[in-house]
UniProtKB/TrEMBL annotation, chain A:
UniProt source species: Mycteria americana (Wood stork)
Entry annotated with the keyword Ribonucleoprotein: no
One example of a Gene Ontology biological process annotation: animal organ development
One Pfam entry name: IF-2B
Function: Acts as a component of the translation initiation factor 2B (eIF2B) complex, which catalyzes the exchange of GDP for GTP on eukaryotic initiation factor 2 (eIF2) gamma subunit. Its guanine nucleotide exchange factor activity is repressed when bound to eIF2 complex phosphorylated on the alpha subunit, thereby limiting the amount of methionyl-initiator methionine tRNA available to the ribosome and consequently global translation is repressed.
Protein name: Translation initiation factor eIF2B subunit delta
Alphabetic keyword roster: Cytoplasm, Initiation factor, Protein biosynthesis
SUPFAM superfamilies in alphabetical order: NagB/RpiA/CoA transferase-like (SSF100950)
GO molecular function: guanyl-nucleotide exchange factor activity; translation initiation factor activity
Quaternary structure note: Component of the translation initiation factor 2B (eIF2B) complex which is a heterodecamer of two sets of five different subunits: alpha, beta, gamma, delta and epsilon. Subunits alpha, beta and delta comprise a regulatory subcomplex and subunits epsilon and gamma comprise a catalytic subcomplex. Within the complex, the hexameric regulatory complex resides at the center, with the two heterodimeric catalytic subcomplexes bound on opposite sides.
From TrEMBL, chain B:
UniProt keyword terms in alphabetical order: Cytoplasm, Initiation factor, Protein biosynthesis
Keyword Transmembrane: no
Protein name: Translation initiation factor eIF2B subunit alpha
Record function comment: Acts as a component of the translation initiation factor 2B (eIF2B) complex, which catalyzes the exchange of GDP for GTP on eukaryotic initiation factor 2 (eIF2) gamma subunit. Its guanine nucleotide exchange factor activity is repressed when bound to eIF2 complex phosphorylated on the alpha subunit, thereby limiting the amount of methionyl-initiator methionine tRNA available to the ribosome and consequently global translation is repressed.
Top-rank taxon, per record: Eukaryota
Family: Belongs to the eIF-2B alpha/beta/delta subunits family.
GO cellular component, one term: eukaryotic translation initiation factor 2B complex
Quaternary structure (record): Component of the translation initiation factor 2B (eIF2B) complex which is a heterodecamer of two sets of five different subunits: alpha, beta, gamma, delta and epsilon. Subunits alpha, beta and delta comprise a regulatory subcomplex and subunits epsilon and gamma comprise a catalytic subcomplex. Within the complex, the hexameric regulatory complex resides at the center, with the two heterodimeric catalytic subcomplexes bound on opposite sides.
Pfam families assigned to the protein according to its UniProt record, in alphabetical order: IF-2B (PF01008)
Species annotation: Mycteria americana (Wood stork)
GO MF term (any one): translation initiation factor activity
Locations listed in the record: Cytoplasm, Cytosol
Species lineage: Eukaryota, Metazoa, Chordata, Craniata, Vertebrata
Leader peptide range in chain numbering: none
Family matches, as InterPro entries: eIF2B_alpha/beta/delta (IPR051501), elF-2B_alpha_N (IPR042528), IF-2B-related (IPR000649), IF_2B-like_C (IPR042529), NagB/RpiA_transferase-like (IPR037171)
Length: 239, 308
């Protein structure tokens, strides 16, 4: 990083250049590199399971579709209340990829026919845990039980020095009213606030332990989850 | 140096010294190729070396030859060569190549020194197929006056008639060292596992996840060992570390699964029997390499250091 000693216009320009360079290399080019690496792992007749909406995963699948045609199909898993899978479904179907859409309670039903699971991440913690949208650790757990390989796509700027072993010690709470469902005009759970013994919990993230993840695809290459601290060390040396 | 000369040098190395690892023979041939190269640019040299490595991989399709070749190339061009004079650069590259070769030839002894303390007096060891590194480790254990017995698997598939040759290679070598040896069927591994104290195998390649690629049958032995809680040790030199990351057996590239001749002549590869399989890192206890004693998760750290 650049230490700006004075706010001279040259210094400001240098800072702007550094920011642009970081954006270009670590974010835009990284996505391209990850898409290419992940493409090597997609074989013909693959059934790939994806969860929620990850721009990296969507990009990988669209690029692979352009290169491979109809060689693979995708199962999009979605969950309430955000229903982000619908956005993924929209994007993939628009490109002509064969998709199946299920809710997360159906994963035990579809997993026997899945050949690999491709997930995105919000952060990769220093102990190798993956912090991602709530529901991801569930998918990883059930995939492990069915012996389906779990691949996580993550750029190196998302690697973080924090360590977390469970999802409760630090998380984000979303609006609990999102969990209220309108069915036939009746709002289920509508009066939850008046009921003293009822609380609604709408978590945003969850933590997947490293032994449930087989491979992490980063712009530095394919690494196992346990090598995150090494990458962090290498990054610090670079800077 | 033409491709035929290169292949001839490689095969001559293997013939003259049957104990040498095929990757070391390949590196020696590449060093000879480098010395005789008449190119004028570094880029030209790199591309001709890459082509040479490809040629050698087509002769001997084992993982170690391609990984050894790639590591050799990386080692000699590791830091930037500041000299503008091409011949000076080439001299430095040749020097580095010799250093690399020397390091690599000493690796087996380093591994034997690290590994033999794990073999206790009275141990019963199970090993698979013919591995020169395992042989060296057991030799070192004998030299330190330990008494132990070894079970060797038959390790098929070899063509009919060659079965006896493979059988004899490992068992014969062990008998020469006066180690009591029992040859067992591949199918008898599950039966014998309760009698065994530890499993010791070599590797043809060590992949990024910390898993290994080895003669077919290794995965089964690893699974049996895990089920009975027996330690599963792997001995491998560091030039066998390769930048592959197989997710399962199917993910291992075909060019490593079958012998080079089969790849060239066969019409339908699914009819051929693969020679190697992939053992996942969760089944391996420790890896003994010339970089030290590593857990499977440390292999990736070492690979990042080697390749990045």
């Amino acid at each position: 990083m650049l230490y700006v000693m004075a706010l001279s216009p040259q210094a400001k320009e240098k800072l702007q250049d550094a920011i642009d360079k970081y954006l270009r290399e670590k974010i835009l080019l990284a996505a391209e590199a990850i898409s290419r690496s992940a493409f090597e792992k997609i074989n013909d007749n693959d059934v790939i399971l994806v969860y929620g909406c990850s721009s990296l995963v969507n990009r990988t699948l669209c690029d692979a579709h352009v290169k491979k045609g109809q060689a693979f199909r995708v199962i999009v898993v979605d969950s309430r209340p955000r229903l982000e899978g619908r956005e993924t479904l929209r994007r993939l179907v628009r490109k002509g990829i064969h998709c199946t859409y299920v809710m997360i309670n159906a994963i035990s039903y579809v997993l026997p026919e899945v050949s690999k699971v491709l997930l995105g991440a919000h952060a990769l913690l220093a102990n190798g845990s993956v912090m991602s949208r709530v529901g991801t650790s569930q998918i990883a757990l059930v995939s492990k039980a069915y012996n389906v390989p779990v691949l996580v796509c993550c750029e190196t700027y998302k690697f973080c020095e924090r360590v977390q072993t469970d999802s409760f010690v630090s998380n984000e709470l979303d609006d609990p009213d999102d969990l209220i469902v309108l069915r036939k005009g009746q709002a289920q759970l509508g009066g939850w606030a008046e009921n003293k013994s009822l609380r609604l919990l709408n978590l945003v993230y969850d933590v997947t332990p490293p032994d449930l993840v087989d491979l992490v695809i980063t712009d530095l290459g394919m690494i196992p989850c346990t090598s995150v601290p090494v990458v962090l060390r290498v990054k610090n040396v670079d800077q | 140096m033409s491709t035929d000369d290169l292949i001839e040098t490689f095969k001559a190395q293997l013939r003259d010294d049957p104990d040498v690892a095929s990757a070391v023979a390949a590196i020696r041939a590449l060093l000879g190729f480098l010395k005789q190269d008449r190119g004028e640019t570094i880029q030209g040299l790199r591309s001709s070396l890459l082509a040479a490595i490809n040629t050698l991989s087509r002769v001997d399709s084992s993982v170690a030859v391609s990984s050894g070749g790639e590591l050799f190339l990386r080692f000699i061009s590791l830091t930037s060569l500041e000299y503008s004079d091409y011949s000076k650069c080439k001299e430095i590259m040749i020097e580095r190549g010799e250093i690399f070769l020397r390091k690599v030839s000493l690796s087996r002894n380093k591994i034997a020194k690290l590994c033999h303390p794990f073999i206790r007096d009275g141990a019963r060891i199970l090993t698979h197929a013919y591995s020169r590194v395992v042989l060296r480790v057991l030799e070192a254990a004998v030299e330190s006056k330990k008494r132990f017995s070894v079970y060797v698997t038959e390790s098929q598939p070899d063509q009919a008639g060659q079965v006896l040759i493979n059988l004899q290679k490992m068992a014969k070598a062990l008998r020469k060292l006066n180690i009591p040896v029992t040859v067992i069927l591949d199918a008898a591994v599950g039966y014998i596992m309760e009698k065994v104290d530890l499993v010791l195998v070599g590797a043809e390649g060590v992949v990024e996840s910390g898993g290994i690629i080895n003669k077919i049958g290794t995965n089964q032995i690893a699974v049996c060992a895990k089920a009975q809680n027996k330690p599963f040790y792997v001995v491998a030199e560091s030039f066998k570390f390769v930048r592959l990351f197989p997710l399962n057996q199917q993910d291992v590239p075909d060019k490593f699964k079958y012998k080079a001749d089969t790849l060239k002549t066969s019409q339908n590869l699914t009819q051929e029997h693969p020679w190697i399989d992939y053992t996942s890192p969760s089944l391996i206890t420790l890896l003994f390499t010339d970089l030290g004693v590593l857990t499977p998760s440390a292999v990736s750290d070492e690979l990042i250091k080697l390749y990045l």
